[in-house]
Structure formats: C-alpha cells, structure tokens
Amino acid sequence: MPSRRRTLLKVIILGDSGVGKTSLMNQYVNKKFSNQYKATIGADFLTKEVQFEDRLFTLQIWDTAGQERFQSLGVAFYRGADCCVLVYDVNSMKSFENLNNWREEFLIQASPSDPENFPFVVLGNKVDVDGGNSRVVSEKKARAWCASKGNIPYFETSAKEGTNVEEAFQCIAKNALKSGEEEEIYLPDTIDVAASSQQRTGGCEC
Amino acid sequence: MLEFDLHDLSDDADYADSMQQGSESMTRSGNSNRNSSSEQVGAEIVYFKDNVAIHPTQHAWERIRGRLKLIKQGGSLSMTWIPYEGQSSSARLSEKDKSLYTIRAVPFSDIRSICRHTPTLGWQYAIVVLSSGLAFPPFYFYNGGLKEFLATIKQYVFLVRSAEDANIFLVNDLQDPLQRTLSSLELPGAVSVANSPTSSIAPSKSSFSRTDGEALDKNSAVIQQNGRQRQKHNDPRHLSIQVLEKFSLVTRFARETKSQFLREAQGDGFISNAMKKHDKKTNNYSSVVESNDVHKPLEDVHVPANSSEESSCEKHNKNEEAAMRDENLEYDYDKLSLVWGKPRQPPLGSEEWSTFLDSEGRIVDSQALRKRIFYGGVEKGLRKEVWRFLLGYHSYDSTYSEREYLASIRKSEYETIKNQWKSITKEQAKRFTKFRERKALIEKDVVRTDRSIAFYDGDDNSNVKCLRDILLTYSFYNFDLGYCQGMSDLLSPILYVMGDESQSFWCFVALMERLGPNFNRDQNGVHSQLFALSKLVELLDNPLHNYFQQKDCLNYFFCFRWVLIQFKREFDFEKTMRLWEVLWTHYLSEHLHLYVCVAILRRHRSKIIGEEMDFDTLLKFINELSGHINLDATLREAEALCICAGENGEACIPPGTPPSLPFEITSMYNQQDDDDIL
Fold first, then answer.
1. pLDDT surpassing 80 at residue B205
2. Which residue has the higher pLDDT, B538 or B107?
3. Domains along chain A with CATH numbers
4. Of A191 and B587, which is predicted with more confidence?
5. Which chain B residues are closer than 8 Å to A68 by Cβ?
6. How far apart are CA B555 and CA B574, in angstroms?
7. For a disulfide at B159, which of A74, B154, B245, B456, Cβ 3.0-4.6 Å?
8. B:423-442 residues touching chain A, CB 8 A cutoff
9. pLDDT of B465 strictly over 50
10. Residues B152 and B47 sit within 8 Å (Cβ to Cβ)
11. Which keywords does this Swiss-Prot/TrEMBL entry list (chain B) (predicted)?
12. CA–CA dist B414, B509 (Å, integer)
C-alpha cells in the first residue's frame, strides 16, 4: 500500500456518450483506432507505463459509461482518482455544455481532499470530422470555460488521427502526479523525500 | 442533463405545512421517546414517524411496521428504524425475524441517496441507498410523512435533487469537511475520530475484522482514547456488512438447522450422510463421488419431479448449507458441485418441437418444454417460433389462430406507436429537446451494436435502422423509462432471430417487463441483483465472500455488465442466444443468471484469492474473461449451485428482483417531472 501512491496514477475519463472516451484511451495506450467500439457498459481501464525523469509510473486510465444514468456507479469507480479528464465532441454543443455537470458530479462522487485544486484536463475531441466544417464549439469558447474553472489545461484532439493524444496524456499524467504528491503530505510514513517536485513546472499548456 | 437543483425549502408552502405537522406529532410523544432513548447522550430526535413499514415479501401478513426516526447528535444526523414489538397483525413473524431488519443508527455520511416513490395508488415509499451501493428495503409510509422526512433531512444535511430525476435526492453530508478529507485518504483512524459522535448509538454486534493488524491497532487506540466502545461499527466498510447481516435470512436458517443437522450427521462423512436422503433415487452416492464419474449420476435428483422428492431435496439443502457454514467441510462441498451438473443436451429441433403442440397449436406441457430447453436450448431455425413463448409474447395455451390474430393486432398497435415519433416534424423536434436527445443517443448506440455480425454489417444497413426504429418506438411506448445504454444489446439478438420489426418490438417489450428496472435512473434493478448475488456467494462460497468482504468488494460492481445485459458482452453472439433461451425458461429459478455469476466467480476463486486481487484488478480480470467463458460448463455448474442452494438460495433474492415481474407496475418507472415536494 505505501508505495501505491507513488507508482500508480489513477485517471478517470468522463464525458457524454459517444464523444470518444474509449477511442482516446485506446489511441493513447494501444496506438489504435477502430470504428467498431461498443458503448461502454460499467467501466474498464487500461494501464500504461510512463516515465518522468528517473521514475516509472503506471498510468491507470479509467473509461466509463457516458450515459448519466450510470452515475450511481461513480462512487466506486472514481475513488482515489489523481486526475479527471473531461471530454467533449467539438461537433456537439450539448457535450460541451455538459462538461460542467461532469465536473461537478465528479467532485461530489470522488470527493477529493482538495476539490478546489483537483486536477482536470479538458479534451475537445473529433476535430478531424468533416475537415472541421461541422464544428460547433470554438476553441476560444472552450478555452474560456477552462480558464473560468481554474485554468484547466485544454487540448484539441482526434482519437482517430492520433492528433495531440500523446501530448494530452503527457499533461494528464503530470497533473495526476502532482495531485498524488500533494496527497502524500498526509501520509508521513510513506512520503518519499527523493520525489522531486520539479514536475510541477512541467510544460502543459496551462 | 446533469443539473442539480438546490432546493430552498423555506418558501415552499407544502414544506411549511409538513414541518408544522412534524413538530406537533413530535410534541405528542416526544417525552416518552426521549426517555426510552436516554442512552443517546446529547442526541436529539428531529423526526419520527409511526407506521413506517417494510415489506420483506409480497405477503401482507409479513409486512413489518415500525418507527422511523432521524436523530441529530453532535454535528451529524443518523436514521433509525425500529420495528414494533408484539405487533398482533404479524403474529406469524417472530421477533427474531423483525430484528433482522432493524436499523439502529445509520449516519447520513454513509447514505448516498434517497429515492422517493409516490405512486398514485398505494403508499408512498422511499429507498435509502448507502454509499456502498447497497440499499435498505423500501420504507412504506402508511401514514404519510415522506415529504416531511425529506424536508427534515434537508435541514441537517446537504440534500441535492437531480433535475434529471426529480425523485432522487443525493445526500452529501458536508457537515464535517474534516471527515471527508480524512476518509478520502483512507486513513484507518480517521473514520473513527470523525464519526465518534454517533458511536454510542451504534449497534453492538460486530463481526468485521481487518487483515491489516496495524491499522486495527491504531483504530483501537483511538477508541480507547475517546473512551468509547464499538467504534469499528462506524467504519463504512463495516456498515455494508451490517446491512447484509440484516437481510440474512440465510444466517438464521443456518443457525437453526445446524444443531439439528449435526445430531443427524454424528460426525461421520456427513455430506454423503446428507445425500443418503437422495439415495432412494440414486443408489450409492458415495461411490459416485469416489469414482469421480461426472456423467453418470443423479440425473433425476437435479429436478425433483414430485413433491416428495422436493421435500427430500429441501432437507438436503438445509444440511448442505450447514455443511457449507462449517469451514472444515468446504472441500466436500466443492467436490459435490463438481460431481453435479447434468450433461447438456442437443438443442430442441423442429420434429421434437411438434410433439409439444396439440392439434390447435397449444403447448400441452409447458413445464416439460421449458425443462427441455433448459437442458439443451433451441435449434437456430426454431428460435423465431419458440422465443415468442419464452419471452411471454405468446402464451403457452394460445392456439395457432389466436396467435395469428394477436400478431395482426400487435402489428397495427406497433405502427400506431411508431407513428407518434415518425410524425414529429423538424419544426416540432426543434422544440422537443427530450426527443432529440433520445434519438441522438439511440443513433449513437445502434451503429456500434454488433456490427461485426453480418446481419448488422456494412454502411446503411437496414437492420441497424430497424434497431433504431424499435428502440425509439419503445422509448415512446415506455416514455418514463426512455432509452438507456444496454438496451440495444438486448434488442439486437431478438431482431436477429425474429426478423420482423413489430414482433421484435413486442418481444423486446416483454423482455423489458422483466429487465426494465435494470435501466431505471437509480439503477435499483441492478443494485438489487448485485445485492442478491452477494448473498448467494456468501451462501455458496463462503471463503470467496470473506475475501470480497476483506477487500471491500461487496458492492459487486465488477459484475455490473454481466447483470445489466445478461452476459451479452461475455459470450459470442451465438452463445449469448443459447444462454438467454436457457435463462428465459425460468425453469429452476427465475434468477439462474445470478447462479451463473456465482459459477464463474467460483471457477476463478483460487486465482482471485491467490493473486490477492483488489477491486481494480478484479474488475479488469472479470472484464477480460469476456470471450473466455465456457458456456456449457458454466451452465452445468450454475444448475448444480442452484439446486444445492435450494430455497435458501431463493431466500437470498429479495422479491421483485429482476427478472422477476415487479409487483408494482404502476410506479415502476415513476419518474415524475413535477416539483411538488421540496
């Protein structure tokens, strides 16, 4: 248990049904895209080893069902999360408008120790669709919302093309790590003094 | 969609009324109440209501009436429900029975949500769901007072209503931020300290033990410091176990039968001793065990055909259970289940099928038919005909001509409902958000449902459109329930088999009569099945149950997908259809799927325990079993477990648990949009 905090980073992906949560996760972990993903029932996760400086971490990425009716499961799945990724589809205004609800619901269910500073990352997915012609949420609008919620890092991605996915998850991992380290303050017997805090200045587009 | 209303109660006239009533009734008997609970130092009863009942079964004489209270102590609010003593109307219930359901003091920090049901006919009731995901049985407010109950809670804890479902109130106890902070860090001592105000009203029975000895020590140190006892009960993990215990008819059963059984067994190889009751039919069981011949034995024992066999089977089950309760004997029990399980038969073919029909097309012996299908399934080409009976679209005693007539009526009924959404113009749709959202959700899902099957393959596939049309029509047929993810998974094989749109629709409707609660907004259908599953594992695989308990996995969320869509994602398309037709026979039990869950879990028990899987690892492991489960072997094991468990198994499953038909259809999907309450 003591070493868990330092090596396992738990990330939850939330967002409306069909915005591409499963695809993003698979693109990042397996470098694959499929048109044949099924709607996620319940929850699942994939893991990926990531390295920061000299240390190796396991990023545990949780993919959840997008229909809000399944949120009663959140209590069990969100527990212990280090970072939450909010995904919307740039071609769907509704999915963007719902980001706030997902964020609030996450904070209620996961009840992190420091909700004000809990790390979120927002991804505007499907930028490839129709060459961008069907887009309805502008980058400006998305960035404004992110700024209003405490400067949430924002990325525009295409899980299909792999655009920006690696960069986004790098940032997600860094933020998860930050969050994990801060929590360690409450666990004096497990804190690793050697753990550098230099990642805090990591280069997300914050 | 996800918006929450924070209701300010102060300007609600109804609320003011109810508060007035509340305080009156409290003054009336407040004194006696306080005297009787004088042990609750510093506790204040802020609400109580008489004649709040629970209905353990659908039998009126088994209803248990009691008093519901809200108690404020220190900064925290708890809820209690104590059944009345010596209640004459329920003379057939022992005091012991009633005490099983007693709820002594549940702090609201352990409560996740309250779901209110206000049916037009019948009593209002509320379901209290705990943070662990478990729920208490519904509380029926015979004398009203549900609104007042919620209003009182609202005064002391943070109560949020989901705008999506006006009947669900999320409890979020923010009274003690320290507790939330500490408990989120999972510090062993933190929970105790934070919860200490409620400790003196906690129940006294404790069976929870942690493997983490150090943590436990810390915990007890805190207890002693505070000079309080029984602190562990406030551990949320312990709470879920308390809850389980309350509903454990099984435990009681085991206690009562064990002593009798032990007398009978007299210490020598009692499994085979117990089995001797069957030997009338099966000759020498022990030799069967020894020879380990899995195919030979017990063909007739599985399915008692008459009542005398049944009673001997029951007796056996009691003994069996006592055996399982005794740790030393688990090995024998394992052996037993391996030996059981009837070999699967070839599927029912059309020639044999015709023997089940009389000259006018009635099914003469539906029990025999269901038994036949239970053991072998149905041949592909015959499914179209047989599924209509299994799903309940046709009744077994209908004739050819009656069915033909019904089909034509149903066809036009379907068209009528379908036209309701077909006729919505673009202009209308612009002003009909709910319709647009449902349609979008359905369209997103049908294009990712079973596309690898040739039937649904390719662009502009007409069957995919048909899936959409049926689901959209269903969401108009049952507007309250609407569409929920997972429904397309359930419909897809039905359309594949039926071909015909209208018939698929009505078969789907029949299936949803049973599985609809799986998709309710509060997910109560799935939760009740997962609860029953936890009880069944406790009964049938105690070591595994203990392991899950130790790992805080008793919510069984890792089986969510299995239960929600009946293993649709766990088997290939053909195997799923085979499994479903077996399940739909409801031959040994309406809940065979839960025994299937137990069978799979048991099969992997040594791996689960050996690799010390925690919740995450377990979920991953279970998800990855998909495509690797041997259906026939699992069905045999499930059958054996179901027979082994007998009535004790059924006692683990609360009445009304899907796929049982609900008894209150009127209020099943009651998702009122009104704003009458808070």
1. no
2. B538
3. 4-201 (3.40.50.300)
4. B587
5. 1-2, 164
6. 30
7. B154
8. 437, 441
9. yes
10. yes
11. Acetylation, Cytoplasm, GTPase activation, Phosphoprotein
12. 11
Angstrom distance (rounded) from CA B181 to CA B618: 27
Q: Is A65 on the interface with B (CB under 8 A)?
A: yes
pLDDT in tens, B314-367: 444 444 444 444 433 343 444 444 445 678 899 999 999 999 999 999 999 999
pLDDT of A3 strictly over 60:
no
* C-alpha–C-alpha distance, residues A151 and B249, integer Å: 54
Nearest to B485 among A17, A44, A75 (CB): A17
Counting Cα atoms < 13 Å in the Cβ hemisphere of B426 gives: 0
User: Residues of A with CB below 8 A from B468's CB?
Assistant: none
Ordered domains of chain B (ranges, CATH): 4-175 (2.30.29.230), 249-339 (no CATH), 399-519 (1.10.8.270), 524-651 (1.10.472.80)
Closest among B593, B510, B575, B629 to B380, alpha carbons compared: B575
Q: Would you state the pLDDT for residue B75?
A: 78
Structure tokens at B323: 């055996």
User: Encoding tokens for residue A40?
Assistant: 């996620």
Q: What is the structure's pLDDT at B87?
A: 55
Looking at residue B25, what is its pLDDT? 38
A68 vs B1, B160, B522: nearest CB? B1
Tell me what pLDDT residue B225 has: 40
Residue B67: both structure tokens together? 């008093």
Can you tell me the distance from the alpha carbon of B244 to that of B248, in angstroms, rounded to the nearest whole number? 6
B641-668 confidence digits (pLDDT tens): 999 898 999 999 998 899 998 765 444 4
Laid out side by side, the sheet with B76-83 consists of B4-5, B158-162, B168-172, B111-117, B124-130, B139-141, B43-54, B64-73, B76-83, B103-107
Residues 6+ apart with CB under 8 A from A106: A12, A14, A74, A78, A81, A84
Tokens of A109: 């269910």
Instruction: From chain A, pick out residues whose CB is under 8 angstroms from the CB of B620.
Output: 44-45
Min Cα distance A137 → chain B (Å) is: 18
Which residue in A29, A55, A123 sits closest to A83, CA to CA?
A123
Long-range Cβ contacts of B34-40 (<8 Å, 24+ apart): B37/B71, B39/B200, B39/B201, B40/B71, B40/B73, B40/B200, B40/B201
pLDDT confidence of residue B340: 53
pLDDT band at B517 (very low <50, low <70, confident <90, very high): very high
Q: What pLDDT is recorded for position B5?
A: 38
Instruction: Tell me the residue type at B160.
Output: V
Cis previous bond, B659, omega within 30: yes
Contact list, A36 vs chain B (CB under 8 Å): 448, 451-452
Of A36, A45, A65, the CB nearest to B448: A36
- Cβ pairs A/B, distance under 8 A: 107
Residue of B nearest to A106 (CA): B2
B485 contacts on A by Cβ (under 8 Å): 17, 39, 41, 65-67, 69-70
* Radius of gyration over every alpha carbon of chain A, rounded to an integer in angstroms: 16
What pLDDT, in 10s, does the model give residues B487-508? 999 999 999 999 999 999 999 9
Q: Say whether A76 and B615 touch across the interface (CB within 8 A).
A: yes
- Which residues in chain B have Cβ-Cβ distances shorter than 8 Å to A66? 485
What distance in Å separates residue B530's CA from the closest CA in chain A?
A: 12
How far apart, in Å, are the Cα atoms of A185 and each of A59, A84, B185, B212? Answer: 21, 21, 11, 22
Asked whether the beta carbons of residue A98 and residue B1 sit closer than 8 angstroms, the reply is: yes
Chain B partners of A37 at a C-beta cutoff of 8 Å? 448
CA distance B47 to B69: 5
Does B184 contact A111 at a Cβ distance shorter than 8 Å? Answer: yes
Rg (CA), chain B: 27
